[in-house]
Structure formats: C-alpha cells, structure tokens
Amino acid sequence: SAKQLGRNHYKMFYETMNQEVVERLALESELRTALEQKQFILHYQPQVELATGRVRGLEALVRWRHTQRGLLMPDQFISVAEDADLIAPLGVQVLEMACRQIRLWMERGLPVERVAVNLSAHQLWEDDLAETVTEIMEKHGCPPQRLELEVTESVIMSSVEKGREALAKLHRLGVEVSIDDFGTGYSSLYYLKKLPFSVLKIDKSFVDDLPGDADSVNIVASIATLAHGMGKQVVVEGVETLPQLESVASCGCEIVQGFYFSRPLPPEEIERILSCDRRPFANRLPGARWVGTK
Ligand code: C2E
Ligand code: MG
Ligand code: MG
Ligand code: MG
C-alpha cells in the first residue's frame, strides 16, 4: 500500500541519515586523534612565473595520513574540522609545518621565495591570529616575507570591515596576503580597493572554460588588468592544459599554478625539482623549444 511504501521510504531515509551522522561522528573523533598524533602533512604546489619558468612560490595544501583510509584530501575533512571546532588547532599545526619547512629549505639553500598557507574563516576571525602567526614564525625562525597567507574572497566579503581589519593586522606583520578563489564571491570593487593585500588568485572555474569561452577570456583579462592597475600580483589557479596556459598568458596573467606544471607534491619531490634547476619549468612555457634550460 501507499502507506506501507511511505513508511519504507521514511525508514530508508532515516537509515541513510543515521549512517551519515555516525560517519561524521567517527570522523570527528578520528580527527581529534589525528591532531594529537600529528597525522597531517603538507604537499606543496609550485607557482610558476611565466616570464622565466622560475618558481615564484609554493602553496601548502594539507593532507591527512589516515591510519586506515589512506591519504585524505582537504575536501574530506576540512568542513568536519570546522564544524567540530577543530579547525583552529589544525590551522596551528599547518602553520607550524609550513614555517618549519620554510626554515629548513632556507638552511639548505633551496630557492623557495615564499610559501602560501590557507586560512579558514574561523582563523581569520580569531582576535589573536596575528599573535599566533608571529609566535609560530619566531619559534621556527621564519622571516615574515617568506610567508603568504591566503584568505578566500567570500570569507572577507562576508564581513568587509572586519575582514579589512584582520587583513591589515596580518599585513603589518610583513607577511604577504592573498585573496583566494577570486571571482566566485561578490566583491565590490570599492572594497577591493580598500583591502590590504598583494596577490589576487583567479579561481579555477574561469580557467576551466578557456580558451573557448569568450566571456571567461574577457573576465580573466579584466581581472588581470584591474589587479595590475591596483599594483597587485595575479596568480591563476587550475591551469591544466597548454591551450589554457596560452590563453591566460595572453590575458596578461604572470603567475600560474596548476596541474599543467605540477600537482601538489611532498617536500622531498619539491626539493628534487628545485635543487637541480633554477628555472625548472622553462621548457613547459608557451613557445618553449624544448632545449636545455640550465
Ligand atoms: P585552494 O586553496 O583554492 O587550493 C587549490 C586547490 O586546487 C588544491 O586542491 C589544488 O590541488 C587544486 N588544484 C590546483 N591546480 C589544479 C588543476 O590544474 N586542476 C585541478 N583539478 N585542481 C587543481 P586541494 O589540495 O584538494 O585543496 C582544496 C581546498 O582545501 C583548498 O582550495 C583550500 O580551500 C582547502 N585547504 C587546503 N589546505 C588547507 C589548509 O591547510 N587549511 C585550510 N583552512 N584549508 C585548506
Ligand atoms: Mg588556496
Ligand atoms: Mg583557490
Ligand atoms: Mg578553492
């Protein structure tokens, strides 16, 4: 009967819900253990300067070495950490790892100019973020100009005045500040002008439609012109193919981060790439003639 069917549907729905809740609770308690046991690692993705093929910086991206489930990506645990109030301690561990790595690479003479670390909304709104960052940099002997902090456009625009103050505090520490996933939020250009930051990261969603989609080409070119006009650097995210690379280059973008050049890699592999060549990606640039570049 229809009633019976309804009841069964309800039961199925309930069981699915229940399973999700149980999964999430399990993940939450595993996250606590993971924080205690330091199961998180960072991978680093090169940001390539198109004029030279040199690595201008690296973005640090967190991964979780789960004891049973293997290597977990941020999409699989960041939101759980946020909901469970664990994003602050996770953020501290990420900053610690990045600063320690920066210092280690400096000591080894590796040409790593800067490392970008992602901040969550929760971290940005903490009153003592600037103090926390200062403490961690000092603890590891990491010069502020080697650290870049990424905040997404939507987080800042969710509360522009507060966002401006938070960015100003970071800016005063001497770290670079970048606006991540730009173009997906709803920035008023008026506020963009007032925000203290030095790098604009154009979101991958625009790059996905290059080079075929004329609107996306125009948007990327306009963002690049706007940012350069304000004296900001532009980093384009998510470039996967040579036609996309050629397209962003002709839009005036000067720094590219994407699978076309490299996926995010463990520190050992970054070291291998950076220690053998000052311009490791020169032969992948548009128009490169695949000759020796050393
Ligand atoms: P995001 O900050 O925008 O980082 C870029 C993401 O795009 C990374 O995914 C990177 O692997 C991916 N990506 C880069 N180039 C390409 C490409 O050419 N093709 C494709 N398909 N993807 C590309 P990932 O590592 O999975 O990180 C996802 C998001 O998780 C990040 O987006 C960031 O919002 C967040 N996240 C990562 N690490 C941290 C962290 O330490 N703390 C916080 N709060 N969030 C983090
Ligand atoms: Mg980022
Ligand atoms: Mg991004
Ligand atoms: Mg993103």
From TrEMBL:
All residue ranges annotated as the EAL domain in the record: 24-278
Descriptive protein name: Uncharacterized protein
